[in-house]
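ok, trying the design again with the full structure, not the truncated one.
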């Protein structure tokens, strides 16, 4: 059986009495692309925020590799290997591309204060390894070599989306939460980002499990192993892309008429 990497059990989240998530449960298997879909306001980003610790549900539990994480702070969850990109780009616009990516590596550095102050021994070795990993692996994968020294805020939106993904990968996560990574991209950029997501998921150098929130149903149906649909904070369906496409509740709540929705598997 596949290993359960992430699990949500009966999660409830509300804001001043308004329910955002109601009794939501699901499992994400190691190595898969698990997508969460639904109309605007369905609770998709709220679920992502609960997973990485920005929100704490009033009821329910979250588990990562079988251990409870719902009481942990966001940085503790990041240390465990849970990384994140955001619906709205959250980069330091005045810093260079490299500096933004290096921030994502901070959680993997273990040097003490003394070693760091003299930049010797373990600190030096960690810095060299971090630089190699970022410059030879991440930047090469995402094809951003040409802009590595550019100020991030001066770059086009599509490139900033790649940089945010690069920062998330610098953590070397086991699971990455991708909140609308295709939003605002043109067709060519969408194709590139979809290719990058497949690469980090399927290539054995990365083998990162992905939780994807996205409105582009063509990409969702093409990339996903399984899909969950939320509506008004309630889980209404879960299954393969084909099953979700044909589910009458999902069609009624979100997809509409989907006779010509393109579905293919890798």
């Amino acid at each position: 059986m596949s290993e359960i990497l992430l699990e949500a059990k009966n999660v409830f989240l509300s804001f001043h009495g308004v329910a955002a998530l109601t009794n939501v449960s699901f499992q994400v298997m190691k190595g898969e692309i698990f997508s969460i879909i639904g109309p605007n306001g369905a609770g998709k980003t709220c679920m992502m925020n609960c997973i990485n610790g920005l929100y704490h549900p009033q009821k329910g539990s979250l588990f990562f590799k079988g251990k409870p994480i719902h009481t942990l702070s966001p940085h503790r969850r990041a240390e465990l290997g849970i990384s994140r990109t955001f619906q709205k780009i959250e980069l330091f616009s005045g810093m260079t591309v490299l500096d933004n990516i290096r921030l994502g590596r901070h959680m993997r550095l273990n040097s003490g204060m003394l070693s760091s102050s003299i930049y010797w021994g373990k600190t030096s070795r960690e810095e060299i390894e971090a630089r190699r990993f970022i410059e030879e692996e991440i930047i090469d994968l995402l094809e951003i070599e040409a802009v590595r020294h550019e100020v991030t805020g001066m770059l086009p939106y599509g490139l900033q989306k790649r940089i945010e993904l690069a920062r998330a990968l610098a953590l070397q996560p086991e699971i990455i939460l991708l909140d609308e990574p295709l939003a605002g991209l043109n067709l060519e950029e969408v194709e590139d980002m979809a290719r990058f997501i497949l690469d980090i998921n399927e290539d054995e150098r990365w083998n990162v499990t992905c939780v994807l929130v996205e409105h582009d149903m063509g990409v969702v149906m093409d990339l996903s192993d399984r899909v969950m649909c939320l509506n008004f904070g309630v889980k209404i369906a879960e299954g393969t892309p084909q099953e979700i496409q044909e589910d009458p509740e999902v069609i009624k709540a979100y997809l509409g008429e989907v006779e010509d929705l393109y579905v293919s598997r890798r």
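Keeping the full-length input from now on. Residues 94-172 form one domain.
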